[in-house]
Amino acid sequence: MRVRDSDTAKADVKRTSSRILEILDVKGKVTKPGAITIPCSGYDSTEEVYRARHPWAIYNAPFNDMQKGVDRLLAEFQKDGWNIVKDGVDRSQGKSRQIIAESDGGEFGVEVRLHKASKIDGSPPMLEVTVESRCYRSPVTPTASDG
Fold it and tell me: Fewer C-beta neighbours within 10 Å, C or N terminus of the chain?
């Protein structure tokens, strides 16, 4: 498992997110949460194994524009050697389109969900994207007794 510092992992995930946003090329509003560090499941907390995660969404854009953006993204992923794990519908009541992909080499995973507007709760169409890094081990930090 690769040793990385969290700041570098978060910067790499943000750079991948920015590239995805560029490919989507959808004119709308984009949420602005930053990348975060979360523990990887299946590891003891003392092992300090993490992943960087960057969730964001596009809203206030026409559904058709978002749909075309997702199609562009899928084509670009395939051209760039990404492994498309899923291209279908999710299990939600709205049966939203869901794409799950892994980058060539497995450094990043991406989940994209395209939600139609809902007449039931009045929610607008939205395109959700989550980019995650591969799990990494945090560098060993020297303690006072190490010196």
Answer: C
Q: Rg of the chain over CA atoms, in angstroms?
A: 17
**Looking up tokens 């960087």, which residue turns up?**
52
> How far is 131 from 16, CA to CA, in rounded Å?
7
3-state secondary structure 56-97: EEEECCCHHHHHHHHHHHHHHHHHCCCEEEEEEECCCCCCCE
Average pLDDT value for residue range 96-119: 94
Residue 112 sits at the vertex; the CA angle it makes with 87 and 77, to the nearest 5 degrees, is 65
What integer pLDDT is reported at residue 146 of this predicted model?
A: 45
- Whether 147 has a pLDDT exceeding 70, the answer reads no
Tokens 């060539």 appear where?
104
DSSP the chain: --B--HHHHHHHHHHHHHHHHHHH---SEE-----EEEEPTTS-GGG-EEEEEEEEEEESS-HHHHHHHHHHHHHHHHHTT-EEEEEEE-SSTT--EEEEEE-TTSSEEEEEEEEPP-TTT-PPPEEEEEEEEPPEEPPPPPPGGG-
Over residues 110-123, mean pLDDT: 89
